[in-house]
TrEMBL record:
This is Citrate lyase subunit beta / citryl-CoA lyase/(S)-citramalyl-CoA lyase. Pfam families: HpcH_HpaI. GO terms for biological process: oxaloacetate metabolic process. It comes from the Bacteria. The keyword Ion transport does not apply. Its cofactor is Mg(2+). Residues 7-100 form the HpcH/HpaI aldolase/citrate lyase domain.
Length: 111
């Protein structure tokens, strides 16, 4: 039988790392760590660092909702998404196909 489409998504604020493991163990189909609307601007950097630390020790596949391509946080968000356990990236406020290409390009290693 083919894999079924996910039926349940659990959004977790990126500035609440205390909830990441609990969400991953909840049995939900997809855990989405939200770095965008759920995180106030003053906490974006801290949330991203907390996510990067958690991803370095976690193997559960997650999705990450990044800030939009025109934000000052986009490239740093995408850099965190290079972790092997990031299975998907949610790109908010996408209005053009070029936004998707920019997301793909920004996620490539620069070495």
């Amino acid at each position: 039988m083919a894999d079924l489409a996910p039926r349940s998504y659990l959004f977790v604020p990126g500035n609440r790392p205390d909830r990441f493991a609990k969400a991953a163990a909840s049995g939900v189909d997809v855990v989405v760590i939200d770095l965008e609307d759920a995180v106030p601007p003053t906490e974006k950097k801290i949330a991203r660092a907390a996510l990067a630390e958690w991803l370095s020790t976690n193997s559960t596949p997650v999705a990450v909702r990044v800030n939009d391509v025109n934000s000052e946080w986009f490239r740093d968000d995408i850099a965190v998404c290079r972790a092997p356990s990031v299975a998907a990236v949610m790109l908010p406020k996408t209005e053009r196909i070029d936004d998707i290409f920019l997301c793909e390009f920004a996620g490539k290693p620069t070495d």
